[in-house]
UniProtKB/TrEMBL annotation:
Protein name as it appears in the record: Putative tRNA (cytidine(34)-2'-O)-methyltransferase
EC code: 2.1.1.207
Species assigned in the record: Mesoterricola sediminis
Superkingdom assignment: Bacteria
Coiled coil: none
GO cellular component: cytoplasm
Family indicated by similarity: Belongs to the class IV-like SAM-binding methyltransferase superfamily. RNA methyltransferase TrmH family. TrmL subfamily.
Enzyme superclass (EC): transferase
Nucleotidyltransferase in keyword set: no
Gene Ontology biological process terms from the UniProt entry: wobble position ribose methylation
Domain tRNA/rRNA methyltransferase SpoU type: residue ranges: 3-143
Organism phylogeny: Bacteria, Pseudomonadati, Acidobacteriota, Holophagae, Holophagales
Pfam families: SpoU_methylase
Keywords: Cytoplasm, Methyltransferase, S-adenosyl-L-methionine, Transferase, tRNA processing
Amino acid sequence: MALHIILVHPEIPQNTGSIGRLCVSTDTRLHLIHPLGFDTSDYYLRRAGLDYWERLAPEHHASWEAFRAAYPNLPLWLFTTKGERRHTDVAWREGDGLVFGRETQGLEPEILAELPDRHVRIPMRGTFHRSLNLAQAAAVGLYEALRQIEAW
């Protein structure tokens, strides 16, 4: 049973391309929640994903509700800068889903309200930061989960 990365309304094709490459390299399932801010045939998406994108079969979902209907029992962790629990404090398990919002706004309040006890943050140091880049955050979160479940 693989881990899942769920991208809700991603806007920047290069980030999604990089995350696709990450998913192929870690045997992780990628879910794309529409609407997307780009077309999946986008040059920049495929350039960032290189030939990895050809080996990826991302699942497309028309909406968050459609995704939840398709995977009602998937354990989800919502990544947000406002989360109280660090990503290293989650007891990750095979089959967990790591959910990330759009680059400019994060996850929508309705989604965050749906799972209030499943908010996760990646700590940051310094005084000037809003959030990590989406592809960086996905890699940090995913590799911590893989480390814990020893999926090597």
